[in-house]
Amino acid sequence: MDTIKKIYKTVGLIFLLALVGIVGFTTWYTVDESEQAVIITFGKVEEGVNEPGLHFKLPWPIQSVETLSKETFSLQFGYEEKDGEIKEFPNETKMITGDENIVLADLVVQWKITEPAKYLFNAEKPEEILYNATSASLRSIIGSSKIDDALTSGKAEIEADVRDLLSTLVEKYDIGISILAVKLQDVELPNDEVRKAFTNVTDARETMNTKINEAGKYRNKRTNEAKGEVAAIDSAALGDKAARIETARGDVSVFNKLYEEYRTNPDITRERLILETLEQVLPNAEIYIMNDNGDTLKYFPIRPLEKEQPKTNEEGSEKNE
Question: How do the residues of the chain divide into helix, strand and coil, expressed in percent and rounded to 5?
Answer without folding.
Answer: 60, 25, 20
